[in-house]
Specification:
Blueprint (H helix, E strand, L loop, with lengths): L1 H7 L2 H19 L5 H10 L1 H34 L8 H94 L7 H27 L7 E4 H18 L3 E5 L6 E4 L1 H18 L5 E8 L4 E8 L6 H4 L17 H11 L3 E6 L5 E8 L10
Parallel strand pairs: 2-4
Antiparallel strand pairs: 1-3, 4-5, 5-7, 6-7
Length: 376
């Protein structure tokens, strides 16, 4: 649009000048015994006057009308003999040129100023709408955080009750089952039932542990934590599991060491949950890749990418919802706990997935300043 304006604007004075010169030449070159033609040419002067007023406002209309008057006056004085009483109409026409130029230019200028005011108002309304939209989005985020806080509050109460009412009896049930198991020989059907009982008590105990992790404040012990070393430890722990599943578990280190301030135990728990989920979602022969990328903004991005089947849109909307799970033996608290740990470290956790193209989990954490003893 700017290029068009630059190319069109210089043409307007040229167009007006051409109109003015051509009409004046018609007047001076047309014989006086053809007055009807002179009347037509006289009216044609209004065309450049109106165009100048529309294009350049009051000043443009007046300048053009004055130029028309100057160009037309010699024709009246010298060719028509200057008979004031006979050519009063033509002299009045000159006055009308200036009136039309001034009035049209004034109206055009006011319309242009009105347009500018409307544009400013429109921009102000657009900015107000954008602010309202941003505030609405923030309100939605706050409401979501309040709902999560309410759920966590409920979890805290449930966890306290569960820890008292279930955890201790579970230990007694498991201990009793292990004692009874010794009374039966291997292969006995009753021993198989006891094994099932022990496994179920272990699973129920894990559920209680997840409740406690979900409700417990995070983190507790903040120290300097080398991200690469933590990831190497987790990969070493899960390498046998990955080989058993015939999955390639690859850790790509960052170009420079990355150190953050974190609770190492909690951070390992979060990374462990993500990698285990990736391994469980990846089919045989697939791969799970972990990359660490430090950014100049002072943050570090840890990317967990798997080659699994991906997650559909409906499930994606609920993956962080407590108690929601697609696994038969899952509690639905793993990702919720993981995100809580990441956010308690001042970071963010985002999941991207497309059915048939795997899943990517991006964790962003603030890096430790070199002045505090860390590296960037």
């Amino acid at each position: 649009m700017q290029i068009q304006k630059l190319s069109i604007t210089p043409l307007r004075p040229i167009i007006l000048a051409c109109f003015l010169v051509c009409i004046s030449l018609f007047h001076y070159l047309t014989p006086l015994h053809l007055p009807y033609l002179h009347d037509i040419f006289q009216r044609l002067y209004y065309l450049p006057i109106i165009l100048a007023a529309l294009w350049f406002g009051l000043r443009g209309g007046l300048i053009c009308s004055i130029l028309v008057s100057i160009a037309y006056a010699p024709h009246l004085l010298f060719q028509w003999g200057g008979h004031l009483t006979l050519e009063m109409e033509k002299y009045l026409e000159i006055m009308l040129y200036n009136i039309v130029g001034g009035v049209t230019g004034l109206l055009s200028q006011r319309e242009r100023e009105r347009t500018v005011e409307l544009q400013k108002t429109a921009r102000g309304l657009e900015e107000s709408y954008q602010k309202l939209q941003n505030q609405s989005e923030r309100i939605i985020i706050i409401e979501e955080q309040l709902r999560r806080a309410e759920k966590l509050s409920t979890l805290g109460e449930m966890a306290a009750v569960l820890a008292h009412e279930i955890r201790n009896p579970l230990g007694s049930i498991r201990g009793t089952a292990e004692i009874l198991k010794d009374d039966y020989t291997p292969g006995d059907p009753k021993q198989e039932f006891i094994d099932i009982q022990i496994k179920e008590t272990e699973r129920l105990n894990r559920v209680v542990e997840d409740f406690l992790h979900m409700a417990r404040p995070q983190p507790a012990d903040m120290q300097l934590c080398p991200i690469q070393e933590e990831l190497e430890t987790i990969v070493a722990l899960l390498s046998n599991d990955a080989r058993g599943r015939q999955i390639s578990l690859v850790l790509k280190p960052a170009s420079t060491p990355v150190i953050i301030s974190a609770d190492g135990e909690k951070l390992r728990q979060a990374f462990l949950n993500i990698i285990i989920n990736s391994l469980q979602a990846t089919p045989t022969g697939g791969s799970v890749t972990i990359t660490t990328t430090p950014h100049e903004t002072g943050s570090c991005e840890i990317c967990f990418r798997d080659s699994g089947p991906g997650i559909d849109a409906e499930t994606m909307n609920r993956i962080f919802e407590p108690f929601f799970t697609t696994k038969p033996d899952g509690t639905g608290l793993g990702l919720a706990i993981t995100r809580k740990i990441i956010e308690s470290h001042g970071g963010t956790m985002q999941v991207e997935s497309e059915v048939g193209h795997g899943t990517i989990v991006n964790v962003t954490l603030p890096m430790q300043n070199a002045s505090d003893g860390g590296l960037r």
